[in-house]
Structure formats: structure tokens, C-alpha cells
Amino acid sequence: MTTPTAERGSRRAERIRLYAQPLIVFGIVAIVLAWAFGSDLDAIEQRSINASTILTLTWQHVEITAVVTALVLVVAVPLGVVLTRRWAKPLAPLVLGLANIGQAAPAVGLLVLFFLATGWTGFWVVVLPTALYALLPVLRNTMVGLQQVDPALVEAGRGIGMSGFSVLRRIEFPLAVPFVLAGLRTALVLAVGVATLAMLVDGGGLGVMIDTGYKLRRTSVLVVGAVLAVALALLVDWLGALAEQLLGPKGLR
Amino acid sequence: MSFWEFLASRWEQVLVDSYLHASAVLQCTVIAAVIGIFVGIGVYRSPGGSAVATALASAVLTIPSFALLGLLIPVLGLGVAPTVTALVLYALLPIVRNTIVGLSTVDKSVTDAARGIGMSRTGVLTRIELRLAWPSILAGMRVSTQMLMGIAAIAAYAKGPGLGNLIFSGLQRVGGANAVNMAVAGTLGVIVLALVVDGLWVLVGRLTTPRGIR
Q1: Chain centroid to CA A127: how far?
Q2: HEC states along B96-116?
Q3: Which residues, at least 6 apart from A81, have a Cβ–Cβ distance to it below 8 Å?
Q4: pLDDT tens by residue, B154-167
Q5: CB B55 to CB A226 under 8 A?
Q6: DSSP label at A149?
Q7: How far is CA A250 from its chain centroid?
Q8: pLDDT tens digits, residue range A68-89?
């Protein structure tokens, strides 16, 4: 536990981001798009900087992020719950240790290795390794969140005759939700980040514009792609922050 | 060629890349620590300043590293300059945040006592507050190093140094004899380096933490 002053500092930082971030994001996107569409584009730039290309790539990016997040939620949360049950306790340090080592692997390495090993291209070759990578923060946070629940509350729940499952559903899990949401936010940001590398394995996404701009020496294309990717990451992070504010248990807010 | 045969024939290249990778990451962590500690010292007394510094640093951290690298290429060119800039920016958040937390959690009665025996403000800062905050700052540097290990691999895209070059060469040679070996060597190399350097940080912590608070 940190002391109250530090806690208040970071809460305040969160509040600043909650209000400032969406405004800044929309401002930057508007400026960059206005600049890009307003300048004289040559034929090569026009091939990348047009509404349909930008929308397609952004949509691919969003799709990768959404599917990765959904996969992570479906796998990591139940796994975290199972690993914190009493009969699975001895497994927990092993899984967390593995997860920590996995986190040390570079995302680009996982992506490239998965691509080389399977020979696939496209959507799933991006989604699967990214999901594996983004799984770890959610899994760890789910476990930490469930472990920090006061055992006295669990005892009390059992004492008034609740079943093991309803203690989990009505006491343990709601108290762990803030941790799960924090992990989910990290996973969302990781997913957007790794999705910018999707172009390495023909997976589309805004990284395509960065790559095209770099290889064909068209700074405008590079900047539009990069700024949109940054904006998407900040927006997704903001959604995560919003979820943390709105979905946490009321009593803990 | 099996992975071990590949490693035996290319171990020089792998070692050089590992060395460059580790040295880039560690140097950037040190640069970020110097900047981050100064920023922390500058803002830790004002709650508003601390909040703005933390908010900014954590917003920087959400930026996809490939996008930041892309944005730096037109400004700084290729190679070392964009790599170092990107790595330092990403390393800042944990260090700034932990410096602020470390400095602001120093017991008020300790600093009051120090002022009471006639120490100057800088004396209190350098001889008491920073030393008590050191374990927290060090923890921040450790987190930063871990993060930079993975981000540095992407820097190879902008012709930066390190193990990322092995991964990208593997990708370019897709279908070739050593493509998988190269990517495996690069990825495993980063994992091994990250674990080794993490151990080093624990050692540094042991050696540099003041005896009284160990």
C-alpha cells in the first residue's frame, strides 16, 4: 500500500487524463487529417491518404484489438479464477512465474516466430500471439485481485450459508473487479501496440501506412499512420479508464 | 540446420547483437533515470505538478512503440538517434512515478528533524530524502529496463542496434534455411538478457541501498 499522498497524486493524474485525453486526441487527429488532405498530394501519397484506405486500415486495427481483448477476457479471467481456488493453489506460483518470463519476450519476436512457424498470414497470425502476450497482465491481475480479498469476508459468506460459487460470484469477484479492469486496460493498450506491427505479417492495420511512408519516403503517409495509431491507443486507453471508473464496485469507489 | 548448430556457427554475431542490445537498454535507462529523478525532484512538493507529470508520462507509455519510432524517423533519421529517444521516453514513466512516490512518502518527522538540526534544503534532499527514496527509484529503473528490452527489439526497424536485427533478418528470409533460427535466437536472446539484467538490478539494489533501511 502506498501512503495517502502518493495515492491522491496518481488519482489526480487519472482524473486529468480522463478529461484531457479525449480532447487532445480529437484535436491532434483533426489537425493532422486537415494538414494531410489540405496539402498537395502526389499520386503515391493519394494511394494511401484517402478516406477509404484510412478507414479500412483503422477498422482492421480496431478489429484486431477487439478480438484480442475478447479472447484475453474469455481465457484469462476464468483461468485466474481457477488458479486461485484452494485445490489449485500449488500451481499458481508456477503459472505466474511462466507468465513473468513470457512477458519478457519481445512482442515483435513472438509475432514473427508465430508467422514463421505456421506460415499463415493475415488476421489470426496477428491475433493469436498478441492475445498470448496480452493474456499475462489480465491473468496476473485477476489472481492478485482475488487473492487480496479479505478471507474474513469469504468466511462470513460461507457462514451465512452461501455456496462456494455464490461466494465467488457475489463477494470475491466483485471485489477483484478493479484489478481485472486495470489488467484489461493494460491488455488493450498492448493489443493496439502490437497491432501496429501486424503489417510485418500482412495483417493490415495502421502500421501499413507507417511502413509505406517509410519505404516510399513519403513523410505525410508515415505521419498520418503514426498519429492515427497513437490516437487510437490513447482513445482505447481512455475507454479502459472509463471502464475502471464506471464498472468498479460502488462501495470501493 | 538445427538451432544449436546455427548458434554454434553464428555465436559471434549473436553475442555482438546481445551486447549492443543490453548496452542500448542500460544506457537509455541511466539517461532516463537522470532526467526522471530531476523531474521528480522538481514536482514532488506540488500535488498538481506531480499529477501532471504522472499523467503525461503515463500517456506517453500508451503510445505504440512502432508509431513513436515512425514519427521520430522523419525528424531524427535512422539508427541510434531515434532508438535512444524512443527508449528514453518509454523509460521515463516508471522512474518519474517511483521518484515522486518515493520522495513524497518520506516520513515528515524525519525531514523535520533534519531541518531542526540545521541541515539546508539541499542537504535534506540529497542526504535524507533521496537516500530513503532510492529503493523506490531503483524499482522504477528495474521496471523500465524490462520494458525497454522488448521495445528495443522493434528499434531494429529504424536501423537501430541490437537483437531485433536477428528477428527482422529472420522475417526477411522467410522460407530460407535459417529464418526460424534467426528469429528464435533474437527472441530467446531478449528473454535471457531480460532475466540476467533483472538479476543484476537485484544485486545493484543490495549494494546501493543504505544499510539502515535494507
Answers
A1: 12
A2: HHHHHHHHHCCCHHHHHHHHH
A3: A142, A146, A168, A173
A4: 999 888 889 999 99
A5: no
A6: S
A7: 24
A8: 999 999 999 999 999 888 888 8
User: Closest Cα to residue A130, out of A160, A109, A161, A159?
Assistant: A109
d(CA A127, CA A191): 9
Helices (H), B105-154: 108-116, 121-124, 130-154
Q: Is the pLDDT of residue A47 over 90?
A: no
The residue with cell 527509484 is B137
b/e burial code for range A147-180 (CB count within 10 A of at least 16 → b):
bebeeeebeebeeeebeeeebbeebbbbbbbbbb
Tally Cβ neighbours within 10 Å of residue B119.
Answer: 16
CB contact under 8 A, A106 and B171: no
- CB-CB neighbors (< 8 A) of A195 in chain B: 64
B1 touches chain A (CB under 8 A): no
Q: Quick one: pLDDT at residue A3?
A: 40
For A187, the grid coordinates are 491488455
The label of the residue with cell 488458479 reads A83
A-chain residues within 8 Å CB-CB of B62? Answer: 189, 233-234, 237
Nearest to B28 by CA among B88, B89, B79, B68: B88
Average pLDDT over residues A133-151: 89
Put simply, the answer to whether A234 touches B183 (Cβ < 8 Å) is no
pLDDT digits over A10-36, tens only?
A: 778 788 888 888 999 999 999 999 998
